[in-house]
Amino acid sequence: MSVMLRRLYTLPRATPLRTTTASAAIFSTPIKRHHHIQGVHRDTATNNANAKFAFNAEYQTKVDETIAKYPSNYKKAAIMPLLDLGQRQLGYCSIGVMNEVARILEVPPMRVYEVASFYTMFQRQPVGKVHIGVCTNLPCMLRGGYDVYNAAKGFIKDNNDDGFYSIEEVECSGACANGPVAEINNLYYEDLEPQSMVNVLKEVRAGTAKPGPVDNKRVSCEPYGEKTSLFGKEAFDVKTVTRTDI
């Protein structure tokens, strides 16, 4: 009986999806990100296993302070912060940085390679002295993120003979209320427009750039203009609690 039922109610086999121009477009990926152009490590003259790296005295102190935050049997939890310190000292996260982090934390180098190649904030090839990451994720994109990105690219193309700048698109920078946003050497510049992005790049070279909302119309992520809700007594004044060192 069960055999007869299976013959009566056999479902048709699924028709394989044929790759056409239309279907390829549906499943196509967005613009390639800078980090994924190189999926694996390729040795260069300055970035190979023989190019040793060591933390200088200033950063070694920070390394020791970081490791001290973790139990001795969980030192490997410090892989990410130590990679970040190495990148801050060298300018990028080389194989030498990864191997030194593995040596210090007493873990197999592969454990460090896995982390460095997974998280896109680790630059595995040299970048400019000033590295710009312009957010083009949805909230920033809707407010002109690509216009800001293209303005920055255009400026850098014409003003970068010394390799001072490098730029990439990044995913969400976590400051959606203040988009478009650009992260420049770990500092955030917010409420950007194409011209203000160019102005920031000029100021960064001159050493006068100030992070935060660039139009000075608000503090932190307060709304523009007058309040539209929550008209009761304020619990605190945002200007007195906002950190001045970021």
UniProtKB/TrEMBL annotation:
The entry's keywords: 2Fe-2S, Iron, Iron-sulfur, Metal-binding, Ubiquinone
Protein's UniProt keywords contain Phosphoprotein: no
Gene Ontology terms, MF aspect: 2 iron, 2 sulfur cluster binding; metal ion binding
Cofactor: [2Fe-2S] cluster
InterPro entries recorded: NuoE_dom (IPR042128), NuoE_N (IPR041921), Thioredoxin-like_sf (IPR036249)
Keyword flag Iron: yes
A Pfam family recorded for this sequence: 2Fe-2S_thioredx
Family: Belongs to the complex I 24 kDa subunit family.
Protein's name in the database: NADH-ubiquinone oxidoreductase 24 kDa subunit, mitochondrial
